[in-house]
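User: I'm preparing a small set of examples for a lab meeting where we compare how different chains pack in three dimensions. I only have the primary sequence for this one, and I'd like the structure in token form so I can line it up with the others. Please keep the answer compact; I'll paste it straight into my notes.
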Amino acid sequence: MPIKYINKNTISTTSTSLGSFVGRSASEASGWRGITYGNGLFVATAYSSGTNRVMTSPNGITWTSRSDALNPQYGSDNWISVTYGNGLFVAVSSTSGGSSGKVMTSPDGITWTTRNANPVANIWYSVTYGNGLFVAVAGSGTNRVMTSTDGITWTARSAAENNTWRDVTYGGGLFVALAQDGTNRVMTSTDGITWTARSAAEANSWSGAVYGNGLFVAVAQDGTNRVMTSTDGITWTARSAAEANSWQKISYGNGMFVAVASDGTNRIMSSTDGITWTSRSAPEQTQWVNITYASGSFVGIAQSGTNRVMTADLTTNVLVSGGMKFINRNNNTSNRRMGFIIPPGPVVYSPTQRAIFGYGEAGSYQSITNLVSNTGVLANDVAGVGTARAYLGAAGYGGDKAIFAYGVVAGTTNIKNLVSNTGVVAADSSGVGTSRNKLGAVSYGIDKAIFGYGSTVYGTPSSSERVSMTNLVSNTGVVATDTTGVGSSRYNLAATGYGGDKAMFVYGQLDGNNNGLLTVNLVSNTGVVASDTSAAAGTAKTQGAGANYGGDKGIIGFGISGGSYTRETNLVSNTGVIASNTANYYGYIGGVNDVLERGWLAAAGYGGDKAIFGFGALNASRYSYTNLVSNTGVVASNTYNSNPTTRYGLAAAGYSLT
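Assistant: Understood. Below is the structure token output for the 658-residue chain.
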């Protein structure tokens, strides 16, 4: 595990970002409903079907079937909920009727023992642990709450109302239960024994609740506002869900709330504050019914589908203002050095969640911008700010902001436009450095940027009009004066980050014949540009683009190669090694290649660990197509965006950590 330590005074901010969910195989095709984590183990329980209704996993990815405790009356029960506390896993069943069973316990998640619920005839929907007590709630019966100090012997308790209680959680010294029906659909208790009815924000079918960061957050299967929040569990405020789905359960981990749904287009939503929610794609359109967080990952389960488990890593982003950097990859325990605590979870350099495309040529020079969401959706045009221009550069700076700079107007220019972490473009700022266009730009050193190379004239430059100077950008967006160039003077090049805090300029051309180059200039994490090297793999290109993906790797591609437009891309490892060409040919759709070859396009990172190529030109035609890049570097087929203005010669950069 590579670790570099920082002095605590260099920290500016930390934040979290959620990666894409990946489908995983369950151990059996059972109707999985309950999931928890304890003692280094994920444990899931099934509601119906399957030979074994328990499965366990040390990491949420690889699962092993386990036998449940057989009910003396029914055989296997419908194990709908499971929790962990005081060294014991406890599951409850929603099987109706019966005279014994409905609870099972295990010290290790592997070997299970039947226990008697009280009342045993109830339909028990949820169990939790808090303040030394196991508490379960039911949807039927006289006493719809039961408690236990050891998970073995249970005592019946009266609910505040005889509602169908679907979930119970604990936090902030309070047990909170939710119901899908009844007059008051919330009840609270400080001791799990005496319960008080509370009004829900709306009369919805409330199905899941969690406590995190001083806030209770609940989700519902129906209703107008399918989220509600409360700081005390007593007074609740309605919130809008990301989509009107049937939201089943919700979890919290390390600054992030995540909920799952059993229907809808996007069956995951996330929020850093429990109030504003963002839609996320599930890996499979199936009935996702529960989710938990532990050891740096969210793990969700489904009661149907091909892959009935999904996982996503939660990344802690550490932004530093200077000095040394802290890298802690795949380390899931807190680390304390020199007075600074790194939170649990894999820690990498700050990946931006959103992107912005801006400026360019569409028959005339433009100043419009198009924002990209953290799910890769390209928005419609935003009215331009600043001087309309093309063939400029853009890069992220300050960890969560961006900068557009340089380009061509009537002649070349060095003006800049800063972009806030909410995607707002500022007015022109006076330029610094040599005016030029068709240059490269990229982030380096976590929170700074560098512009480099280019041409001082719009047309085909002479050897004296091609330049190799660079301009560093501070983490506050200040552009420095020219740094004497290193390497071959060239234009129409690309740039990408790699290794978390370094960068490279790559490719380009020397003349008007579109003969590309394989030239590479690496940039250190202090902004020092290295001499020319030649890429050992790939094809010489010009007019391409590059972006980060996968947290610490890069991708470069498209443009012109050997005089012809190309769709090829090349992955860049986290050590700066360029891989051989990836063809990206999937066939034809509507008379064009499924991944359209084109040049003078732009690219940026988005979603924390993915990338997007967008816009560009093919001969005399302009396009607004985008191609998403997964966090494993796979380029997707064209996304046809009909509303944004088609253009080329634009620039793009990532911004925002949320």
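A couple of notes for your slides: Residues 1-13, 319-350 have pLDDT under 50 and may be disordered. DSSP finds no helices and 57 strands in the chain.

User: Perfect, thanks.
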